[in-house]
Amino acid sequence: MPFGAGVARTTLLLAIAGMMLGAVPSTGAPQRLSGPSPLAGECPVNDRTLVYGQFGAAEELEDESDVAVHPTDPARLAAAWVQDSGSGIVVASSRDSGQSWTRTVVEGLSLCTGGSSDRVIHPRLVFDDGGTLYLAASPLDGFWPDPRSASSHIAVTSSTDGGRTWAAVVLVDEDAGAAPALNDFHPPTTEPGSPGVVSIMWAREEAVAHQLVFSRSTDAGRTWTHRPVEGPVPGGLTAAKLVAHPDGTLIAVVNDASVPGFFVGGTPAASVAPTPLRVIRSTDLGETWTQTAELDPSSSTQWAAAAVTGGGTVHVLWRSRDDTGAEVFRHVRSTDAGATWSEGTALPRGRSAPNAPLPTLAASGERLALLAFEAADPAETDPVATILGSDADHRVDIRLATTSADGRWTWSSLATTDRGAHYLGHFAGLAGAPGGFVSTFVLGSPQAVHGPVDLFFVRVPHRR
User: Which pTM does this prediction carry?
Assistant: First the structure.
């Protein structure tokens, strides 16, 4: 059966199944979003695809996600996830606040979906103010069994009907003239009041030095301009989510959190060198950048995030440790579009769960939410057991910290699950919505019914 015909049939069946799921509970109970694999039987079998079977690739295995809310019609939602260990990307769209969903496979991203890459990972979604939905993802070649042979692209496509149909895929790195490399993309960013404008900050990773690049499109992702980020930042950068302030300022958090010598000498390095965590900003649409803060002088984290609340305050959180060595989230804010920053405060947390998504930050009005994946059995502290994946580390607590009207943080648990030995993905979804937040994440036993893990959607109202 041709690929397109199989996907069309499966999409229709999954749409009907989605309508049978019923209304989304308003109390935050997780709702299963994924179903039987729409790629089953569709993928070509060759030497390139067979090698992945030895490294955990399997049908009915979802492993990361994102979610977005339409800016002027919040009943319209979109969620994207990696299907079958990277065989393709599925997007579920809803026009009734999540009571029913239509599921579509995005074509042109992988061998299984009419593209040329072995696998595709890291789906990220965002709407612009005109209602165009953007999907960015990483088509990946190589990596298994030898990561030194890997290369990846930054693929972008757009949808004008909320995710049911998609434009032709554009490879941003190829458009920039980059040779094959591990190109580490970061989530697409749209600008308030500028429909059709979307930007991506990405790092081209090479043997001894990296180059941070700012790419911007003003025609909904069809064509792009590209500028290297120079001046206040060193080579070898990675970046947190780029955010756009309502006054047009662009703000990003950057640090040299790459693995030194990853492709040098025939053996990947085993650790990340601590380096400063910095804030940079641009007031001329990315042509020039200046450093405005050094948040952490010696950060070994590969994660930090930024979000802008309704009144224009910029918030940055990152993983750190307090004086006792306990893990905390540091939180700073700026009320002048990133020019100056407040003293940091610490948000206590448990122990990070291994092989689980990085924390995710989102804003809803003046409220913030932070989604984090914690070890459900924090007493397990043996580093060898952690590396090998002990039974204790298989249990994951999906926790959400939210701010109240007076700005105080409170943690709550959305679900606890046993992931087994399965990777839950690099990202999970979190977005602001009127009156609260929406989130997508993968759960294993006992919640999963379609294979070892399923993708879930949850709505969480604001706390008083």
Answer: 0.88
